[in-house]
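Narrative of activities, Objective 1.

The group set out to show that a structural description can be obtained from nothing but a protein's sequence at a throughput compatible with the screening campaign. Below is one input-output pair from the validation batch, recorded exactly as produced.
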Amino acid sequence: MNYPILTSISLLLCSNVFMTFAWYAHLKELGHKPWLIAALVSWGIALFEYLLQVPANRIGYTVLSIGQLKIIQEIITLSVFVPFSVFYMREPLKLDYLWAGLCLMAAVYFMFREKL
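Output recorded for this entry:
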């Protein structure tokens, strides 16, 4: 078992939850507030994202390339964003999410094909 990769993925998953809320939850929750308030609240949430994301990338970089880390990040981002969009923001589930996921699967193949 490759613990640095699992640790990195776990931390990136958690950081993405904070990132997604920091980037988009203000649209639903603070839409009636001035943008500066929304920006400050988002910035506060993003602090927790960075407290997880920085060690995740440092740990992951011990066994992965920067390109591999980026592709993992994008897959996690989409994996967190789609449920957030559907369940929290009440946006409809779109077939475009599937197409984006398939494109990311192709990206994973190209970034990791040396290890396959």
